[in-house]
Amino acid sequence: MIEYEPVIGLEIHAQLLTATKIFCGCSAAFGAEPNTHICPVCLGLPGALPVLNRAAVDHAIRAALALGCTIHDRSIFARKNYFYPDLPKGYQISQYELPLATRGAVELTRDGQTRRVGITRVHLEEDAGKSLHEGFVDSDRKTYVDYNRSGVPLIEIVTEPDLRSAADAAEFFTRLRALLVWLGVNDGNMEEGSLRCDANVSVRPAGASALGTKAEVKNLNSFRFLEQALAYEIDRQIAELRDGGRIVQETRLWDSAAGRTISMRSKEEAHDYRYFPDPDLPAVAVDAARVRRIQSAMPELPDARRRRFVAAFGLPEYDASQLTQSPAVAEYFERTVAAGAPPKQAANWMMGELARALKDAGADAGSSPLGPAQLAGLIALVEKGTISGSIAKGVFETMFATGRSADDIVAAEGLTQISDESQIAALVADVLATHADAVAQYRAGKTTTFGFLVGQVMKAAGGKANPKRVNDLLKRALEP
After folding, report:
1. What are the pLDDT digits (tens) for 406-454?
2. Cβ neighbours of residue 63 under 8 Å, at least 6 residues apart?
3. Which residues contact 409 (CB under 8 A, 6 or more apart)?
4. How many CB atoms lie within 10 A of CB 476?
5. The model's pTM
6. I want to staple 153 with a disulfide (CB 3.0 to 4.6 A). Which of 56, 213, 374, 460 is the partner?
7. 49-86, pLDDT tens digit by residue?
């Protein structure tokens, strides 16, 4: 039986975080009443001339540099001609033959394997409006159109066909989203449509160099849907070939409810976009000084910061990856360590208690009511043995809710850990006398009762006994 391998390339549309649209002064904010953020330019009315948003170009350059692309000193806007109700001009302003940037790459590491994913191009374009098919009394007969999104600035990021599994594609999309959010050029909100993905997928005999016939799966707006759609499509194409059929080049849609892709249009029905240079827009000129200025203002990128966290702080790769999901989290970690917390303990608290508390509060590290120095103070009390780890979790909850310091809470509530051997030995003796059956079972070889006895000592101490000393003294007392 012939073994097949998938070949996947992605086209990712990312809305740029600018206050206004790409060719006019209308607001680019999401969520306004339909058709309130519009003007003659974004409606394509006769005589309305577009003027390029400089901030959109700077954001696009910033993203392209982070992807390792070459920024071209001259790029051209073109008209992409097709008819659709949400495209008021009858064409979309995009870039085609001369894009803003080309030839980049991203290193993708999964399961210990590193793969280079090439970036073919990064180009600027405007978004279309949005057709509304439901929510109106006559939605069964009419489609409504909201043009608020028309003209919102986008970049399209096109990869080489370098991905070899659905999981790799989802991981790449995840990494790209994190990078764009890290740079401050995209908000990463896929539910609002500010980040969307199309996937081109084909299969070929394993080891072959020629590409198979591809299908394009459109408008995937979550990592899970991307992975599920590609996994289904790969299986569908392999099954078709093994049954003696052939793959038709077509555009397909993912039906998440049915768990399958469905055909949207075949190659014969595909659009001829008839690109030509937009006569109303001059070439985009980007000089070297502008690129250097943007480059100099770039933050340390996530991969570089992750590597530094491993090298400088001795963190495992997993911890470093989790702590570089956003600039706010990475900054919080570094400030916690700078305040005196051991790196590994700081990472554990941030990935555990702090992450849970922030999620429950609907907050993030940048708006945490518990500051890095406060967390470092709590960790210091645990490290010094002043409080136990279990007590520390309760102290943390109070700190997060009230903003009080760990020292204040421990002193006010009398939570200082009992470390005096004579006190703990007395507690141990009482527990052994009370639970003679468990003692006998332990001495008869049922060592699982040891945990029960430890729990009873800790309970008697109100959770404040030093766990290590409890274990040591209990073992000593249980010896014949």
Report:
1. 999 998 987 776 666 777 778 777 878 888 887 778 787 787 888 888 7
2. 14, 122, 155, 157, 179, 180, 183, 185, 186
3. 395, 398, 399, 415
4. 10
5. 0.85
6. 56
7. 999 999 999 999 999 999 999 999 999 999 999 988 89
Other beta carbons less than 10 A from residue 332's beta carbon: 24
Query: In whole angstroms, what is the distance from residue 373 CA to residue 379 CA?
Result: 10
Burial of 437 (0-12, 13-18, 19+ CB in 10 A): exposed
- For 5-17, what is the mean pLDDT? 98
Q: For the chain, give every domain's residue range.
A: 4-291, 300-413, 421-478
pLDDT digits (tens, 9 = 90+) for 164-196: 999 999 999 999 999 999 999 999 999 999 999
Rounded CA separation 338/331 (Å): 10
CATH architecture under which domain 421-478 falls = Orthogonal Bundle (1.10)
In the block, residue with structure tokens 């702590």: 323
